[in-house]
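Researcher: Please predict.
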Amino acid sequence: MFKKILIANRGEIAVRIINACKELGIKSSAIYSDADITSLHTRLADEAHYIGASPASESYLNKNKILELAKNIGADAIHPGYGFFSENASFIEDVEKSGITFIGPSSNSVKMMGSKTAARTLMTKNGVPVVPGTLEAIKNVEEGIEIAEKIGFPVLLKASAGGGGKGMRKVSNNEEFKSAFEATKREALKSFANDDVYLEKFIEKPKHIEVQIIADKFGNYRHLFERECSIQRRHQKIIEEAPSSFVDEETRTKITSAAIKAAQSCGYFNAGTIEFLMDDNKEFYFLEMNTRIQVEHPVTELISGIDLVREQISIAAGNKISFNQDEIVKKGYAIECRIYAEDSENNFLPSTGKILQYKEPNGPGVRVDSGFASGSEISIYYDPMIAKLICWDSNRGNAISRMKRALNDFQISGITTNIDYLLYILSLESFVDGKYDINFIDNLNTNKDDSKNRTNNSEEIELAASVFLSLIKNNKKVSNRKSNSSKSLSNWWEQNYE
């Protein structure tokens, strides 16, 4: 086993890895920038090292500094978490050449899955269903229009090297194609230094279903069931569930088998996620592979009983997977809500500043993964996610109820958060019934069915009223809302329930 791991990340995922290191008896080494000098991960790690100025390019994305530091402190391995260098094949290759172990897949696997077009080609060869579209980058507008007409509009233009919802545009007809194609190429070049763009059929009202896989260096592959990740805002997930209430056992067997095939096709080892789009008929199509630990991994941990980060470290150290497939039985339901420092009433603008009060909810089946505490600063330089609140219970209805209670108990002041917005989503009948797709958030303001339900469903109104009155009654303790939370909630009530 490793003696010392350098954690090349920050925030809640750095804390998560530090905790795993402690349980394994491994010394943890954190890095921090100017903005993170007092952050929680620097206090919890066995040692913390300054890595550079606040901009990520000068600190968490400074490859040479990180590698030099790892060598100087005698680190056996580097854990990248998610984001930053976690899916950077060049960085992984440099780590491999240095003799330090990268806790994740090989650089070769990341290269194979990093290009969306190359990954689609690989999946097609290995019998994994893909969305109809091009397997190579589109050369020009004329070629793109010709292919789009054959497939049938609407289509989706996507950056070949893309991810995180960037470099994607829906095109509904020929007239829109040229401007959308040029804009997608510009965004792709700016975000990924690669302007290759491909095209695929736009699946109407799909659900985003992903399968957690894990593999070792001995050729053993396991899946840990699926996650439902369709609640997204601007292509970013904000609520995740495991398992999906939409997926039946027959479909589960098919999609998990396809995920294993996808991982085997690139000789993958360590933790990874295969993402699929699923239509109303439960036909699914490969979307992409995330060659790292996912933000939403806790929901899988809670239904499977497997510590994914600890398993990652063990596999990287040369051990076999510690469990057989038939030993993993899904138990209950888990839901994760991402708590962001953002103003949902003001176009979700990030809210920066010092956290004056921070108190996490607790109780049976409640877990919080966070990288912040009272006195922590929310910086303009990084993602505004404060914490992940994860709740488990024996069934989905109970898990939702537990999540609502826990959200109400979460106390954060000094900044604005999205907690009220999350409570609103969890109270919608369409969410409770599991009748939603990846367009759910975009359609919230115009969803006539929900509007009708909010007006006519007395049970729904009583539930929303209960949430509203609870928030007003406990306004002092839930001071994570704006100081005028009563007024803002009243406005919300008027707009949605009267």
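Model: Confidence is low (pLDDT under 50) at residues 448-498.
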